[in-house]
Design brief:
5 strands; alpha+beta; 2 helices; globular; Alpha-Beta Plaits
Length: 90
């Protein structure tokens, strides 16, 4: 199990990025959350099997069809096991 904390930049708000991230994370069986930031970025934390987290990271670099991702800042951390599922935070 691993934990990944990301900040995603580009045209990532107003394009259903959070909803698609939620859907993708759930399909991979990941736990964590995603939210919009006031500065226009999207922030997310994922916990799960390393291979599935790496698949999620690849997805974050592309995003949904209407998004345009320009940068993904990533931090790999020790998992805390604090999440029951994956949620959208507001």
């Amino acid at each position: 199990m691993v934990r990944l904390h990301v900040y995603i930049s580009g045209r990532v708000q107003g394009v259903f990025f959070r909803a698609y991230t939620h859907e993708e994370a759930q399909s991979l069986g990941l736990a964590g959350w995603v939210r919009n930031l006031r500065d226009g970025r999207v922030e997310a934390v994922f916990e799960g099997e390393e291979e599935k987290i790496r698949d999620m990271l690849k997805w974050c670099h592309k995003g949904p069809p209407s998004a345009h991702v320009t940068d993904v800042e990533e931090s790999w951390l020790e998992p805390k096991g604090e999440f029951q599922g994956f949620e959208i935070r507001y």
